[in-house]
Amino acid sequence: MLVLASASPRRKELLGLLVKEFLVLPADIDETPHEHEDAKEYVIRMAVEKARASALMYSHQSQQDVNAIFIASDTSVVVDGKVLGKPSSLSESKSMLRLLSGRSHQVITSLCVCNLAFEHVATECVTSNVSFRSISDVEMDQYWKTNEPQDKAGSYAIQGLGSVFVSSMSGSYSAVVGLPLYETAQLLAQFGIHSLEEMSHE
User: Per the entry, which co-factors are needed (predicted)?
Assistant: First the structure.
């Protein structure tokens, strides 16, 4: 049994490309960065804590598979070393988009795969570079009205309308969306889950 520790529909869709069946069991955690915490350390810690919280929730269920494997991920948009979270208002969204406008930034996505007992824990971190064209205030206002930026790190979705701001990208597209497929397949293989082989048995 594979368990996805995320409520993100994007991660669910991406994981579904690799694995036919899995359980979705997100857990709420405190996502506040620690003081002076490096952005890469932060996203890895978030993935590990999400996986741990999901495994703990699962262990309290009456019906459980002791061989269950948990996968969690976290994505942060980073500019000048600052982690941009999800905007809670138009003004926050515009503040973030102004920081990103006309320049490059990093998107750091972490992965954590572990077993139920948390004895075997594997992590990975993927950094991609994304460049934005200049964005006008009018565009920022109109973009906010689409509701797309409201639950997205950095206030944009590369897989949606936010792609109109992206002039170039280097790295992993799937990682920027929310789940790096190459690295996910590699980590799952360490736990005996081989995506293409699994699908060949349909």
Answer: a divalent metal cation
Contact 140, 147 (CB under 8 A): no
- The single residue of 30, 65, 74, 151 carrying the catalytic annotation is 74
Domain ranges in the chain are 2-199
93 membership: H or E segment, kind and range? helix 90-100
**Parts of the chain with a pLDDT under 50:** none
**Cβ–Cβ contacts within 10 Å for residue 192, how many?**
8
Does the domain at 2-199 match CATH 3.40.605.10? Answer given as no
Give the model's pLDDT for residue 197. 64
Task: Give CA–CA dist 5/27, Å, rounded.
Answer: 7
Q: What is the dihedral of CA 36, 40, 43, 48, to 10 degrees?
A: -100
